[in-house]
């Protein structure tokens, strides 16, 4: 599943699932196992995968949660991290139901991860970067280093700072990986238009019963 993008129906299903999770979480109608029976999960949506969920209101980030490790099936990751991004990201005030109209959900599906030896193998303009050392870890999703105008070396230094490591400590015994993401994002999906009720069958024409013929006497 890491070797191909999701198809249109899979992307639509994930976005609908994320929105059902978010609206239910903020209106005290949490998604249930019975609700999940309405979704036709494909093998790639059932496969474990890393995922980050970002919630934006009026273009500004209001919550982000996720993990790079494929710890759960993808559809479960969507549910868990959509909830957490909405109300458990300590960097932002929790969202409420009044925020739903201006909110956009962005799902960043983690692609194949490749270990690299140093900055010469990193493309900050198009790749995400993950760093781990001494049990501490940090990552930047694709796009952030380029937005900041960072070089590959600066990106690694900033990752060290995020992981509470000394800058430059990436040069020795650090695990460095690069990865791509597939983005699924949008406002609430439009509900399918209501189907008009089928026309009522036309009444059958009345058949007149002929009067009995009386014989003349």
Q: Topology, please?
A:
Elements: H1 8-26, H2 33-36, H3 43-46, E1 51-57, E2 60-67, H4 74-87, E3 103-116, E4 128-133, E5 136-140, H5 144-148, H6 152-162, E6 175-186
Antiparallel strand pairs: 1-2, 1-3, 3-6, 4-5, 4-6
Question: How would you describe the overall organization of this protein?
Answer:
The chain is of the alpha+beta class and 217 residues long. It has helices at 8-26, 33-36, 43-46, 74-87, 144-148, 152-162; strands at residues 51-57, 60-67, 103-116, 128-133, 136-140, 175-186. It has a six-stranded antiparallel β-sheet, with helices on both faces. β1 and β2 form a beta hairpin. α1 (8-26) runs parallel beside α4. The model is unreliable at 206-217 (pLDDT under 50).
Write a brief caption for the model.
With 217 residues, the protein is of the alpha+beta class.
Distance from N terminus to C terminus (CA atoms, Å) equals: 95 Å
Q: Report the average pLDDT across residues.
A: 90
Beta strands, count = 6
Helical residue percent?
Answer: 25-40%
Radius of gyration from the alpha-carbon trace, in angstroms: 27 Å
Contiguous runs where pLDDT drops below 50 for at least 5 residues:
206-217
Looking at the chains present, what oligomeric state does this protein adopt? single chain
Tally of DSSP helical segments: 6
As a percent range, the share of strand residues is 15-25%
| Broad shape | globular
Biggest sheet, in brief? 6 strands, antiparallel
Instruction: Assign the structural class, choosing from mainly alpha, mainly beta, alpha/beta, alpha+beta, or little secondary structure.
Output: alpha+beta
From N to C, what is the helix and strand string? HHHEEHEEEHHE
Give the strand order, joined by hyphens, for the main sheet.
2-1-3-6-4-5
